[in-house]
Every structure is written in structure tokens, then in C-alpha cells.
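Hi team,

Below is the intake form for RCK N-terminal domain-containing protein from Cyclotella cryptica. Please confirm the fields before the structure is written into the shared record.

FORM ID: S-0412
PROTEIN: RCK N-terminal domain-containing protein
ORGANISM: Cyclotella cryptica
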Amino acid sequence: MTSSEMSGRRLHLPHNYFNGLYLLHLLLLGSCCRYIHGFQVQHSIQRFLPSAFSTTSRHQHDKKNLLPKAIHQTTPLYALPPLDLHLPFDFTSFNEISRQLTDALDIGADFLQDSEDGLATMNIPEAETSIVLESMGQDLLLFLSSSVIVTLVSKSLNVSPILGYLVAGALLGPHGLDCFSNAKADVELGDFGILFLLFSEGLEVSSTRLKRLTNYLPLGFAQISLTTGVITAAILAGAPQFLDRFLPLDEGYINIQNPTEAVVLALAGTLSTSAFIFPVLKERGWESDPCGQAATSILLLQDLFVAPLLVILPYVVGQGPTDYAAIGFLTVKAVVGFGLVMYIGSFLLQRIFSVVARTRSTESFVALSLLVSVGMGAVAQALGLTDTAGAFAAGVLLANTNFRAQIQADILPFKGILLGIFFMDAGSLFDSDLVLAELPTVLTGAIALIVLKAITVAAATRVPRWLEPNRLEPTDAAKLSFLLSGGGEFAFVVLALAERLDVLPKDLGGLLTSIVLITMAITPLLGEVAEAASKAFVSYAVSNGIQEPMEESEVADDAIVVCGFGSIGKEILYALGRSHISSDCEDKKSLPQVVAFDTEPFLIDKILIPMDNTAVLFGDGENPEVLKHHGVENPRAIFISYEDEEQVMAATTRLRTLFPDTPIYTRAQTRKEAEELKAVGATEVVVEHDELARSARSLLQKTNIINGSTEVFPLR
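The structure came back. Fields below:
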């Protein structure tokens, strides 16, 4: 068909081209324009229609992308008359969308009616589904093969796999080899990795640990406020222009005079990366340290801060609606609605998992675990919060159930693979051409962000005096300040929204994205710097008389270790302290032979130990660095006296890995818990219920109420 023949025809919608449901879908999509920002709808339609007609690159959005290859060669699109759909829309930004949509319908209808190449029976939704699935399959194959290579190379080079994923993403992404076929779907897959990461972190938060995390919420508020204020003030005070005197910076990027623009940059810079910091805490054994607890609390608070930030930002730039009653309703819906969901879930999830567990179907249990993590994220998002906050809340609800360990084991493979996809997606945002062209500006921006955030986080640890007795020690504050000094993944969301609201120019947004990505990538290195800074502070404090120098070894290197100095830990320490325990080494006989560790300062400060051969020290007794720092290298025995069952399980698992031949003694409330503890490495477990039964039997025997001494409650 020639272009002149086509120009005299109106649009036909044959049955094999649009069924009624698909046409209804398009109409509803358009009618939503009055409620949804035009950019979102335009992006959706551009992404949907071209993929059904074109085999060209997804990065090109010219008119020819809406055509099959056959029409590319015969009929130019501009020769066709525009089609007026007469849709009852009054949203001005819909004009461009309508133009592209009508062009696509004109060409598609005529082509599919008259073509002889076998495409006449193709249905648009089926074509879209087929192409999306094919592109996702190609990308998944690329991701999986890259993951294998990245893991092997990272292990051989002894570097973090996260860094390898970022490099792979940069090489394979649109600014590199451009190997990804479906960037939108890949990003969504990567987001599932973040969901599972936060879900698994929530599973680690028992009721005791949750209480500890809430103790550091004032520190989180102080960090967000100080960092936002300092970065805003630095930009408006002319800090970029001052640095331009000494460095070859690009004036097009540093001349920021608009207060709104400065506030947006500060809000984006305030956020830190959960995806990078949590693995660093786990690798270095800082999770249970005050530093790790404070970092977790601040990161979760930042996560909760993102949702209201995205709502408030349009008001900051003067583009938000003025219906404050509606805003109040949304706020109440988010708080009350999510609170109600948490309340219902607190007893409903336990019962659902119990029912599924009784079926002994592994597939159903795994599916339920995935459903809960993703489903709670969807519920939270529907209520106006972030999906990651919902996933974390789901983990917290299940943290005190008997299914925690199995759920963690089930989602671990999914979490690892999908997190790898997320990191590769993040790496694909790295624009190497832009970074090389603006290298001085990029490096200066990255260093400035790290320095400013480190200073403000350190200052925040000193500001809230009401944190006592949970105020961080200077060494922990030094570690925390460097850990949180990089950018975060949610900064990408804030910057993208700012671009859409015309607050930031697109080129500046791309530069800032690269800066944030660089600071995220060096988070493992910042962990090294954090540890070095902590040690340097100790050396400085000792040399200046601020802190008393520690002895070369505070306790015997083979001392008996008691983890936890609560009510149970005290009794164990006192009982062992009254016993005669000597060291095999002559020069260690004067040192304490029994040492208890706890991370609650007020417990240690208020305890007076009368025995010379015991010591109570601040720190995490299951952390090898803490033990080594105090001189314990090969403990003769370890007693785990934590009151929280989940903490006991985690400590037993970790200590058995560290000390394969050391006896580990712990306690449990039930025989089932005792069996689980023995399975992960406990040498002996005292079951409280059995001990109570033995005591009752002994009392009855003494009063001759019952006879016999048969052991009916054997420990297993």
C-alpha cells in the first residue's frame, strides 16, 4: 500500500488487532491523566506501544520506532494523516501522548489489515507479552552468567562481590556495551532484592533488639536534620564557588543559587544505602555492636522518611495541590492503616505459617515466605509508605516465631540473586562518558558529600544528650560516621522526582546520580576507613590522657567467656568466680580467668565484682575482634546467657563457626529449642522446663509424697 492510498483512509480497528478489553485499557489509561502526572502516562504508553511494533533499540524514541521494519522501508510516518480519537480528556499534557498514540494506531491498523507477512493475526497484548518475556529471559541469562563470573573473580581478588556487580553493570549497561534488553523489568527485579534484604533484616530483629533500635531513633532524627541543614547551608553559602578557586570545576554545575534546588540536593544527600551497609555490618561482625544497632536504626528511619519526603517535595517546589484535608487523610491512612495491618499480622501470620507447615509442603512454605515479604511491601506502598518498610515490618512480625530460621533459609537464594541484579542495575546508571568529561567536578562532589556527612553524623552522636545511657562511645561514633557517609539508593528516586518537577536540570541530575553511585560503591572501603578511624581515636585518646591505656592483655587468653550479663549471666559469673580456675600459663595466672561481655553500659557500670579472677567488659562477646582486643584467643568454654531465644541461636551458630573445638553451653525454654541449638553447635543445653520438673519431683520426694528416683526427664 502506498502512502497516498493510506492517506485517504480512516482508522479501522479489526477484531484481530484490538479486542474490547485492550481498547478499554487504553481508554482508562488516558482518563487517568487528570490524576496522574503526564510524564508517567507518556512514559507508560511510549514503553508499551513501541515494543509491540519495533525491533530497534529501546533508547531511541523517534517516530520510526513505532513501525515494523517492512514499513520503515516503504512508508514514512509523516505521510500519514493524524487521527483524532475525540477522547474526552482536558489534561493539557495529554496532547503529545495522544499524537503518538494516534500515529501508532493508524499505522498498526492498516498494516495488520493488509500485510502479507503473517503478522495480520497478531494481537498487541500478546506481542507485548511475548517481547517482554523474551527480553527478560535474555537479561536473566546475562545476569546469572555475570553473577557466576563476578563471584569467582571477587573471591580470587578478595574484594566485595558488590563492587564486582557494580562494575559488571557499568560495563553491560546503556553507557557501556548496552546488553540489557528490558531495563524497566530489570530494575523491578532488582527492587525485589532490596525487599528480601529488608525482610531478612527484619527477621533478625527480635523484640529485645527492636527495643534497642528504638533507643537510637533520636540519633536518627538528629542525623537527618543536621545533614540536610549543613548541606543546604554549604551550597547557599557558596562552598562550590569557593572550591572552584582551587579546582577546575564546571561552573554550569556548581552555580546553584536557588534555595529549593539546594534543599532538594541536601535531602537526596542525607540518605544512606541499606543495600551496601548491611552486608558490611554482617561481614565485620558489627550487627550487635552499638555502632551496628545505631546504623540499623538510622537506616530504617531514613527508609520511613522517604515516603513523606516524596509527598512533601512537590509542596517545597510549589507544585503540590492545596487540598490539605486530603493530605491529612493520606497521613492518617498511612499511620492508622499500617498500624492496623501490623496488629492483624501479629497473630494472623503465625497461624497461617502453622497451617502451611503442617502440610509438610516445602514448595508451599517457600511460596508463602515470598508472598509475605512481597505482599507486605505492596500493602505498605498502597498505604503511602515505601515497600521496603513493609517488607521489614513483615520480617519483624515473624522474628519471634518458630519459623524464622526456615524462612531465612528459604529466601536466601532469592535474596542473593536479586540483590546481584539490583547492584548491576545500579552500576548501569554510571555514565562513564559524563564522569570522564567532568571528572574534577564528580570527584569533588563525591569527596564533599562523604566529608560533610561524616562530620554531621559525628556531630549528631554528640547532640542528643537524652540518648544516655545509649549514647555512643567515641570509637563507635567514629565508625558510624564513616559508614553512613556515602549516598543511598533512594537518592535516585528523589533526584528523578526533582527532574520531573523541573527543579533540577537533567544534566545535573545525571551528574549527581553518578556522584551518589560512586559513594555507594566505595561503602566497603568506608568500612575499612571506619575501623581505622576507631583505632586511631583510641590511640589519640591514650596518647593525650583522655583514656587510660589498656594492658597488653586484660584477661587470660584461654579465659571462660560468658556472653550476656543479665540476671542469668550474673549467676554464672558468680558461680564460676567462687570456683578455683587457674591458667596453664604461669604469666597469665594473675589475670581474670572468667570474663563476661555485654553491650548494655548501665549493666556494667552498676556491677561490682568481688572476685579477682573475674571481669565484666563492654562489648559483643560473640565478636571475634572484641575477644581478640581483650586478649581472649582460645577460650576454654563459652556460656551463652542471653535472654532472647533468637539472639541465643544466632550467637551459638556464630561462635561454633569461630571456635569449632570449644565447648559451648547455653539454655532453652523447651526441648524443641534445645534440639535446634544442638543442631547449630551447642555442646550442652539446659532446658528450663525440665529443670523445673526435676526440682518439683525432688521436693515431692523429700516430703515422701512420691517415691523413687527414676529420671523421667532426660536431657537430649
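SUMMARY LINE: The first strand starts at residue 560 and ends at 563.

Thanks, M.
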